[in-house]
Task: inverse folding
């Protein structure tokens, strides 16, 4: 979500020149670690803080407060020439654990499947693992197949999906470009197949969607509170939509 | 030992000389001191891994650090495979280029080639990584009919490209150091140009050439960015014959990709430093072998040992 955080910071500093905002990327874990170490005011994260991270923060005298600032959907992407239109979550789980290794088994051509994933420091990785590979089962110990290619960036995934007809990858909807084909996803056999879009994420019919968080130390005050209010307000949420993420629903 | 002052009878103190000598001494000493500090730091951060994680786990073939599987064998395997591939590609090419430049090419060609080859050494590895990802990987996939072009072999190509300037310039110096008498002698005895190169010049320059190979290797195994971008980073131990044409995850890429994320002092953090220790030991061994070769070969190159 570094793109989003950068866009917010840029737009906000133009309107409020007196408020300097510096944004650094590196994955949710990096941001949370920085919050725990007290080096940042706001940690952006695309996953909830883990209980041990909260405990560690409290040990450092930091009380993390959670704010939902936008929503995101994970799109499953393939090469544009791939004839497969949709997959169920159990099928995706079987593909990413290495049980299904040929596109033929899910209605495609006779081609080997090449699995692409983000690196394990990405919040997207953790979310996809929990929701898709483990199908939301907390007891599950399923892991990505050891043949999965771990790409250090969204650009790495996009680049391989664009040129390799064997590839299947996943990434935040905001990072998917039009030269990749997004698959419709179904919760299971017999359930409807839904393509990710602003509507389907807002009405929660698209199964792989998640909130995006900002964490502050204690309830925000002063400029940080103003900034968070601006983000969850209409101007901040317009930027969310512009970047392909999904704006918060008005309560 | 020579003292910095009181050099001769009745001589004044040479303060300028003393200052320069001290400066050089401190600079030289600090280089050693810094290496020792790095090694100490690696040891301090890395050794806890060996009692936090069981040896069975460390020597397993599963690397899922987020879930407590710290098998470093696939990473070691990945690094060695990519480096071996790079050696196979770069050594014949680098050696041939060095021989051509020193023994065959007219001097104006050499004057153009030498700086050009040195320019290759200056290309940042991220740039090469992009090139590898966008251009080389698709070609490798299509031409070899592989499931994906992000393979150990693609990494080897990029590394060979990076090690090439080192190998060429050191091997060229080694060939250049062979006395001209050797060539003249061989030619006078009726050897052809190629026979003189192959039978006389190359054996005489052997130690320098070996050193070129070892230093090139040392550079290749420690390279990170380009390798991370083109090898696919899948921590797997391929037992099949074609493992070179499958994705791998190297030690350097693992450290680079994961170090930014880990909580300081966690098991994962210590294991990453332990991986760094293994890498350090390997490069240390390679450089050590290179130095031994250089020391042993030195007198022969001067031409004193005529057999």
Result:
């Amino acid at each position: 979500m570094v793109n989003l955080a950068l866009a917010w910071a840029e737009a906000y500093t133009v309107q409020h020149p007196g408020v300097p905002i510096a944004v650094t990327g590196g994955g949710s874990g990096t941001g949370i670690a920085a919050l725990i170490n007290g080096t940042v005011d706001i940690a952006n994260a695309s996953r909830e803080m883990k209980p041990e991270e909260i405990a560690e923060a409290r040990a450092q005298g930091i009380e993390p407060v959670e704010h939902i600032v936008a929503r995101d959907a994970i799109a499953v992407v393939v090469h544009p020439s791939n004839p497969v239109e949709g997959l169920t979550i159990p099928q995706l789980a079987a593909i990413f654990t290495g049980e299904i290794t040929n596109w033929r088994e899910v209605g495609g051509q006779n081609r080997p499947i090449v699995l692409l994933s983000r690196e394990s420091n990405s919040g997207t990785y953790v979310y996809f693992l929990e929701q898709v590979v483990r199908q939301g089962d907390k007891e599950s110990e399923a892991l990505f197949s050891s043949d999965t290619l771990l790409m250090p960036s969204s650009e790495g995934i996009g680049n391989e999906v664009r040129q390799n007809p064997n590839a299947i990858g996943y990434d935040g909807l905001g990072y998917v470009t039009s030269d990749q084909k997004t698959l419709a996803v179904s919760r299971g056999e017999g359930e409807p197949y839904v393509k990710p879009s602003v509507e389907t994420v807002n009405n929660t019919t698209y199964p792989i969607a998640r909130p995006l968080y900002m964490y502050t130390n204690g309830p925000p005050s002063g400029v940080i509170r103003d900034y968070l209010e601006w983000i969850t307000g209409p101007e901040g949420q317009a930027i969310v939509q512009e970047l392909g993420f999904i704006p918060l629903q008005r309560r | 030992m020579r003292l910095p002052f009181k050099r001769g009878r009745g001589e004044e103190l040479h303060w300028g000389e003393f200052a320069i000598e001290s400066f050089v001494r401190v600079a030289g000493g600090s280089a050693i001191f810094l290496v020792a500090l790095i090694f100490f730091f690696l040891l301090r951060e890395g050794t806890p891994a060996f009692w936090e994680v069981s040896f069975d786990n460390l020597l397993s073939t599963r690397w899922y650090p987020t879930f407590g599987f710290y098998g470093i064998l696939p990473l070691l395997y990945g690094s060695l495979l990519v480096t071996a591939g790079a050696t196979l590609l770069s050594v014949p090419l680098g050696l041939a280029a060095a021989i051509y430049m020193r023994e065959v090419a007219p001097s104006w060609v050499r004057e153009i080639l030498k700086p050009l080859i040195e320019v290759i050494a200056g290309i940042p590895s991220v740039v090469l990584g992009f090139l590898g990802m966008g251009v080389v990987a698709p070609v490798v996939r299509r031409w070899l009919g592989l499931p994906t072009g992000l393979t150990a072999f693609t990494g080897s190509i990029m590394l060979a490209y990076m090690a090439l300037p080192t190998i060429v310039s050191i091997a060229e110096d080694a060939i250049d150091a062979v006395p001209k008498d050797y060539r003249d002698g061989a030619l006078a005895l009726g050897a052809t140009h190629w026979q003189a190169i192959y039978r006389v010049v190359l054996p005489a320059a052997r130690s320098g050439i070996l050193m070129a190979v070892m230093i090139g290797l040392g550079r290749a195994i420690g390279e990170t960015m380009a390798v991370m971008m083109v090898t696919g980073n899948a921590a797997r131990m391929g037992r099949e014959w074609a493992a070179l044409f499958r994705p791998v995850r190297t030690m350097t890429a693992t450290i680079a990709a994961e170090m930014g994320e880990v909580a300081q002092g966690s098991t994962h953090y210590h294991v990453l430093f332990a991986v760094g220790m293994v890498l350090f030991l390997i490069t240390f061994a390679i450089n050590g072998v290179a130095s031994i070769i250089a020391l042993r070969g030195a007198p022969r190159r001067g031409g004193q040992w005529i057999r």
In short: Chain A touches chain B through 31 residues (CB under 8 Å). Residues 2-15 of chain A form the longest helix (14 residues). The beta strands of chain A are 42-45, 64-78, 86-88, 114-118, 149-151, 167-172, 181-182, 184-186, 209-217. Chain A is about 35% helix and 20% strand.
